[in-house]
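A favour, since you know our structure tokens better than I do. It will help me judge whether the discrete encoding reads sensibly. The space below this message is yours for that.
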Amino acid sequence: MKYFLITALFLSSYFFSTAEAQKYRLSSSEVSFFSDAPMEDIEAFNKDSKSIFDASTGEIAFVVPIKSFEFKKSLMQEHFNENYLESDKYPDAKFEGKLQGYEAGKTAQEVIAKGKLTIHGITHEVEVPGSVKENGSGLEMQAVFPIKVADYDIDIPKIVFYNIAEEVEVRVHFQYQPYVQ
């Protein structure tokens, strides 16, 4: 319940100042990351993101609950939440910004998501290349980008240095439908 209220407040405070704009909300999502390290590859998937997109301004915001990442090995998931991402203290990753180059009504286009990305309580300005496609009445967005774990103060103990890469590849696939109030 607490997560829902925080997410609703975050998303509503960001977008609902313009009543007539064309807005979309997330209907399905998948956020994943992949770590390629000498000892083992690590991959996790998350389908619980929340997002809203304003097509009239290009503004976008999303929240990814850290505890919803699922790993092949439960011990990896436990270490991820307790030791590296400290998900009780920092429960969400967030992005708020704008799609540069977005043109409403265009069937398919390449864009740059420019804004603030917060992970593990650390916020950085980022520019992430991606694509937007019209898909029936909705929109499909995709992006693939690297994240350096040290940039977000995620400490990797030297004993597991060969198990976790210093840079992970993040994949985002969002499907939006028109938002009806």
